[in-house]
Amino acid sequence: MDADYTQKPFDEWRAADWPSTYQSARYANVSGVGIAFAPPHAISRPRSNPRGTVIAPAPPRTGMPSGVMAREVAFSIVDMISRGASAPTHSASMASMGAACIASAGARLRTGSAAAMTMYPVVPDLVRFPGSGRSGPDTYGEIGLAAHWVKHLLHYLFIYKAKARLGWQFIPE
C-alpha cells in the first residue's frame, strides 16, 4: 500500500501516513479497499483496561469510506486501462474524507430512534485540526426520530442503488 507502515510512537503518527490510492507496493495491478487494506496505525491513542489489555481503536473500513475508496480505485483502474496511466490517477485517503453513520435503535415509524453521527476527517489530522484532529462543525452526533427516518430512507436507497436502477449513480456512498 501507499502508506507509511514504519513502527513509531503514537505521537509521531501523521494523517499523511495513511494510504490514498490503495495500490499494492509490490503488485501494481492489485489494490485493496475496505477491510482488505491494512491500516498503518490506530486512529486514536491506544489505551489499556485495568487488566492491561491494550485497546487500540481501528478505523471504520466498511460502509461509506469503503464505497469512496472503491470508487476512486475503480476510476484509477479505468484510467490505467483506457488512457495508459502508469500510476493511480485518483485518491481517497481516510485522512481527507468524512464519514456518516446511522445506527438504528428502534423499528417503529413514529417512536423509533437512531443515532446519527458524522466525522471529518475519519483519521484525525492534528496538523490541520490541532487539539482533536477533527473539524468541530463537521463532526457531531445526534439521537432521535429524525435519524431513524433517515436510516429507513437510506435502507431503500441502498437497495435501489444495489439494483442499479435508473439514476443510481447519483445516490451518494
Compact overview of the structure:
With 173 residues, the chain is α+β, with helices and mostly antiparallel strands. The chain has 2 helices and 5 strands; from the N terminus they run ββαβββα. β1 and β2 form a beta hairpin.
Task: Tell me about this structure.
The protein is of the alpha+beta class and 173 residues long. It has two domains: 96 residues, no CATH class; 76 residues, no CATH class. The protein is 21% helix and 12% strand. The protein has a three-stranded antiparallel sheet, with helices on one face. The protein has a two-stranded antiparallel sheet with strand order 1-2. A hairpin with a 5-residue loop joins strand 1 and strand 2. The longest helix is centred in the middle third of the chain and has 19 residues. 23% of the residues are buried.
Shape verdict: flat
Let me know the number of strands. Answer: 5
Strand order of the largest sheet: 3-4-5
Query: What gap, in angstroms, lies between the N and C termini?
Result: 23 Å
Q: What number of structural domains do the residues give? A: 2
Element pattern in H and E: EEHEEEH
Structural class: alpha+beta
Helix content: 10-25%
Radius of gyration: 18 Å
- Low-pLDDT regions: none
Largest sheet: 3 strands, antiparallel
Integer average pLDDT:
88
SS strand fraction = 5-15%
- Number of DSSP helices? 2
